[in-house]
Structure formats: structure tokens, C-alpha cells
Amino acid sequence: MQPSAGEGPDRGGIGYALRWLSDGKPRSRTAGFPSRIHRSPVATVSALSRRKGAAFERHVASVLRELYPDAKRGLGQARAGHEVADIAETPWRIECKHGARPDLFGALAQAERDAAHAADARPVLVVARKNGGQDVALLRLVDLLALLRPAERADAPQDTETTKAPENASQTPSSARQETTP
User: Fold this and answer.
1) Rounded to two decimals, what is the model's pTM?
2) What is the pLDDT at residue 43?
3) In a domain, 2, yes or no
4) Which residue, 15, 36, 62, 130, is the most exposed by fewest CB within 10 angstroms?
């Protein structure tokens, strides 16, 4: 039933947010109509989320300063994220994520795209924290192996013949022995 003149949602009452269509069914005022404000298809990040992300980046930088004293939050990312990593002055291109359900693999792909765009050859590392959880790190297996290889070489047993001191002079090589003649 269509409202007669002088009735309906535009004349006051609780129906002010509804638009009456020709069939008499109420619908949202904006349903089927273009919005006055253009909304980007890219998801916008709230100010609270930006502050939480910035605080997490500062936390990660402070933790990394133990190994890399110059580690700091990459401030150039406000203009173009691909130019500067979230954490600068480290041998890694670090992407930080903090949220209810951080997308680790999406963050890894984003960091790799940004690194390729910026011609950054450093290995990519994602540091993330779920709300109320612990910090975790994600990196490619090849990067982990490259990181572990120097440590493996340092732990390898040394050659015992070259490092062992001789117990008596008869065991020393003849070229090393000095004979004295009276």
C-alpha cells in the first residue's frame, strides 16, 4: 500500500531513514542509488589500527636493536610502502603485522612484492602478533637454511690432528724439531 500525500517516512516519525518505493515496501534510502561519497574498493585502516601497527613496529625495532643497534621503524612507508620496509637498518626486509587474525602468507607475499618493486635483495621476514598472543616470525625455508649454515659450520668439530698439541717431542714432525749440536 502506497502512502498518500502527507504521510510516509519523509513526514517525520521513525521511518525517516527508509525510502518508500512504488510497491510500498520500505528499503534503505541508499539502496540502488549511488553514494554521494566515493568509496575506494581498497579497505581503509582505522586510526586505531594504524596506531596499533605503529606501536608493534616500534616494539619489533626495539627487540631487534639487541642484534642490530641501528634498527628503527621505517618512516618512509607512510608515502609508499614498497620503498621502505616496516623495520629499517637490518639485513632483512621486515614486514610487521598485528591484529586479530594476521594474514602471514599475505604479508610475506606483500613484502616480496615490495622488495621486488624496490629492487631490494635482502631476504624477507614477517613478524606478527595475534591480539593477546606472542610474537612469531615467518620466512622462506631457503632463507632459514642460509641463516643456519654459518652456525652449523661453527659447531662442526675441528680437525683433531692440526689443533692437538704434541705430548712429547718425538711426536712432532721432523721439520718442526730443532736439533742443537754441541
Assistant:
1) 0.59
2) 59
3) no
4) 36
Nearest to 52 by CA among 130, 114, 120, 109: 130
Query: Residue type for 108, please?
Result: L
Mean pLDDT per 10-residue interval, the chain, length 182 residues? 52 48 55 52 75 94 96 74 83 94 94 90 95 95 92 71 50 46 48
Nearest-angstrom CA–CA distance, 58 and 80: 19
Return d(Cα 30, Cα 33) in angstroms, integer. Answer: 5
Q: Which domain holds residue 62?
A: 47-151
Helix (H, G, I), strand (E, B) or coil at 72: strand
User: CATH number, domain at 119?
Assistant: 3.40.1350
Domain presence at residue 22 = no
Report the domain count for the chain.
Answer: 1
